[in-house]
Amino acid sequence: MRVLFNTIDSIAHWMHRVSGLLLILMMAVVVVDVSTRTIFSLSEGGIDLTFRGGIELVSFGLLYCILLSMPHCVDKGQVVVDLFTQGFSATLQQRIGGIYTLGFAALGLAMSWRFLIAYEDALVTHEVSQDLILPISRIYLVVIVATLFLGMRSLLVGIRDLLLITNR
């Protein structure tokens, strides 16, 4: 069981790093897009280095950035209102956290199911993005994998907390 937990945790950490890389790439796209539009404006249209799809790249990048980071962050830094739980034992607090994390599992699995339906619809209709003409079905496929992994890791973390298994 510990091997399964460690493997899932490692994959989640890898996804989190990819998310950070996407964040840097999104920032680069925004800087380049704003810079090229400024050059275009200052040259009164004489120098056109602008490109299409900057907003889409940032939008899809943000979607992936959030969804790829969520599995790693599901058991880290949760905001807890201590007024309610501060009098409880550490064991009970961990179990309450496990139940809370199972809610994330339900959320991740429900999102996967809903995006699977959207994926099938986009596949049938051959829906594409507006500027870059990317197949939306492929974008949804990555979202399905990320949300499914969120649900799976949340489920395992919730079980680990409910059974009082230590992470290390």
Automatic annotation (TrEMBL):
Membrane-spanning residues where?
21-43, 49-68, 99-119, 139-159
* Quaternary structure note: The complex comprises the extracytoplasmic solute receptor protein and the two transmembrane proteins.
> Principal place where this protein is found?
membrane
> How does it sit in the bilayer?
Multi-pass membrane protein
Q: Which InterPro entries match?
A: DctQ
A single cellular component GO annotation: plasma membrane
Which keywords fit this entry according to its UniProt record?
A: Cell inner membrane, Cell membrane, Membrane, Transmembrane, Transmembrane helix, Transport
Where does the UniProt annotation locate this protein? Cell inner membrane; Cell membrane
Name-wise, this protein is TRAP transporter small permease protein
Q: Which GO terms describe its molecular function?
A: transmembrane transporter activity
Q: Which Pfam families match?
A: DctQ
The Swiss-Prot or TrEMBL record describes its family as follows:
Belongs to the TRAP transporter small permease family.
What does this protein's UniProt record list under function? Part of the tripartite ATP-independent periplasmic (TRAP) transport system.
Tripartite ATP-independent periplasmic transporters DctQ component domain: residues covered: 26-159
